[in-house]
Every structure is written in C-alpha cells, then in structure tokens.
Amino acid sequence: MTSWFDERLRARAGALVPVAEKFLDGRELARGPDGLIALCAHMEDWLERDDVDEEGERRFVEQAGAMLGMLLIDHVGDAGHVARNGTHRVRLGRYGFFDPFSAVDRALDASDVRRALARQIVVAEAESQARGPLSRLVGALMTALQEQRPDLHLVEQFEHTLWLRADGEPFELDLKRAVESTRDQGLDAVHAVVAKLLAMLPGATASEGLALDQLVPRIARLDALLPGLFARPLSEELVVALMVEERGRARYLRTNEVDEHPEAYELALRNLRQHSEQARIATIETEHGPLWIARTGDGRDSARVLLASLHEELRARIGPRVLLGIPHRDTFYACDARNGPLAHELATRTAHDFERAPHQLSARAFTL
Predict the structure, then answer these.
(1) Most exposed among 63, 124, 212, 304, judged by the fewest C-beta atoms under 10 Å?
(2) How many Å apart are CA 364 and CA 237, to the nearest integer?
(3) 212 in helix, strand or coil?
(4) Rounded to whole angstroms, what are the CA distances from 315 to 290, 322, 334?
C-alpha cells in the first residue's frame, strides 16, 4: 500500500483507487514530481515488453491512467474523480477536467514518453488554475451569467457539458466546440464566444433593431444547437439555422426572433447569394475523375449548398446527378454520383475531414 493514499485522498479519488493499486501491485510509489518520474519509468519498461496483447494494453492504460489521476488529485488538492455514464475523468480546480487515460495512451504512442507526458501535465495544471481552454471558458461564462443572467445557475458540469437551470428541468449546454475554437486564442476570443452563448440561451430577450441585412443561413448539427434557437430540418442530423453577423461577431437567431420576422429565412438566402458572387470552387483530380471542392474560405461554403444557383452550376459542371459531402462548416465536396469509384472517394474524404474538423457537420454523402 502506498503510504500517501490516506483516507482523504481515497475519498476524493473514488473508483481510481483500486485500479491504481492494481498498477502498483504492492510497490511503493513517491508522490509529486518523483512519482511522475517513476510512472514514466514504468511506462517505458512496459513498452519494452513483447508479450502484450490488445487486452493487456487496454488494462495497462487503465491502471497507469488511474495512477496518473491519483498523482494529480494529490498534487492539486482541489480535485477529485468524477464519472458519468461509464466515462471517468479527473476534476481539477473548480471547472477544469482532465482525461488521464488518454494522456497515458498518447504518451505511450509518442517517441519520447517523458516529454509527451510532461506536455499533458502542463495542460492539467493549466486547467487546475483556471487557465486551461475549458476552465477559463467555463469560468468566464459563469461570471457572465452572474452578471447578466442571475436567473440561471449551474446544476452540474461534466467535462465540456454543463447543465443549467432556471425554472423547471435543467437544460444541457455543450461547450466542446466553443472550447476548441478558443483553445489557441486570447481572452478576447473567450469573451466573444461567451457573449454568443449568452445570446443563445433560453430566456434571452429578443434583440432590438435586428440587422436583417446581416442575416445568413448556416448548416448546423441538430445536437449542437441550444433549445430555443431557430432550426429548419435538412436531414436526420443537420438543420439550417439563421445567423446574424454584426459588429464583428455573430450569433444564432432564436425562434421567437424569426417569428417576429417571417421573411428572415428568405432574406438570409438572398444575403448569402450576394456574398457568393466571388465564391471559389476548385477541382481535385483523382484517379477516378474530378472532385469539386469549395475553397472560398469565408466560413459560408457549407451553407452555399442551399442555393439554387449553386445547384445549377454544379449540374452544369458535373451532370444531372450530383453527390455532395459537407464534412464541416468551411467546405463541401461534389462529384458525379453515377461514377461509383469517384463517389467512394468523395465519401472517404468526407468522413476523414469530418473526424478532424473543429466545426463538424456530417460524415455522410448526400445526393443533390
């Protein structure tokens, strides 16, 4: 038994404790930086083994990740194990979260285990001090709610997901995309995103003097929109939302705002057509034929698939049956749906781009 596994630490670490003890297997491990160095040494020794199967690798990552979680909880103090629906994380500080299992997994895949794990520890410490991408965003949002929406309060947080309540049942707010979009940005970007989030929250008052000439449509994932925002179905997973771009920032329109302006949807399409006069569609030559790809770079390329004028242009270039891929907000792919190998190429590229995009839309291919 490791001597610093006292009752208080065990209470905060919860389900991590027995898994970490399996990792130790009766050995003593120091706490703090010395413990991290020893953990790295164990990881390096494990990599030298040649008798490990897939199940053994999974078990090692689980146990080493639990040990890393124990070291972090002990070091930070204001920290603990949190689990939801079978997913386990370490809470660091008030709003920071960290995945010790992924950290171990990434370090094992790196060419330098110690350097890779050190980078992960830097991320964890930033989250514990409200400087990490997640903790600083949630902290800024909570401050803004206290000042501008005191009727809302935080019920629960699990990593990127918040549950807020005013009256009635809590509603869910997913911050994953907001965190990714501000990860490498300064505090100004964080505050701009928080302002957008506040405008989208249920119960926000409709804006006065809505700038109808700044409306544009945007394709979004249904599961990424907050309750109360306008959304017109496009497919099982996608909807068309309306966005107003004004004063250097943008926000989604709420349903009550669109109800007050029935012409909003058509105006948004008209504005998008005007923004599309210089839109750029390039060609990628593949062994099976040409793929067309939108490369305007203004963040509106995916929404352009809503325009009848684009449909006409694609049919003129490609033929009567057009296959589309819209993996993320900033592009679309198009090709001749009658060309089977080319259609497969489009589907593969779409799925690949979807997995790696910060503003994901769909991994599927659609017939125009």
Answers:
(1) 212
(2) 10
(3) helix
(4) 14, 7, 10
Q: Is the dihedral of CA 364, 365, 366, 368 positive or negative?
A: positive
Whole-number Å distance between alpha carbons of 167 and 190: 27
> Tens digit of pLDDT for each residue in 258-302?
888 888 999 999 999 999 988 899 999 999 999 999 999 888 999
How far is Cα 354 from Cα 368, in angstroms, rounded to an integer? 19
Q: Which residues of 320-336 are buried (b: 16+ CB within 10 A; e: fewer)?
A: eebbbbbbbbbbbbbbb
Q: How many CA atoms lie within 13 Å of 108's alpha carbon, on the beta-carbon side?
A: 21
What pTM was estimated for this model as a whole?
Answer: 0.64
Instruction: Please name which of 215, 217, 351, 273 lies closest in space to residue 361, comparing C-alpha atoms.
Output: 351
What lies within 8 Å, CB to CB, of 130 at 6+ separation is 93, 94, 95, 96, 136, 139
**What are the tokens at 177?**
């995309």
299: DSSP letter: S
Nearest of 349, 309, 311 to residue 333 by alpha carbon: 349
Q: Is residue 91 a contact partner of residue 80, using CB atoms and an 8 Å limit?
A: yes
Tell me how long the chain is. Answer: 368
Give dist(CA 218, CA 244) in Å, integer.
Answer: 10
Identify whether the C-beta of residue 170 lies closer than 8 Å to the C-beta of residue 179. Answer: no
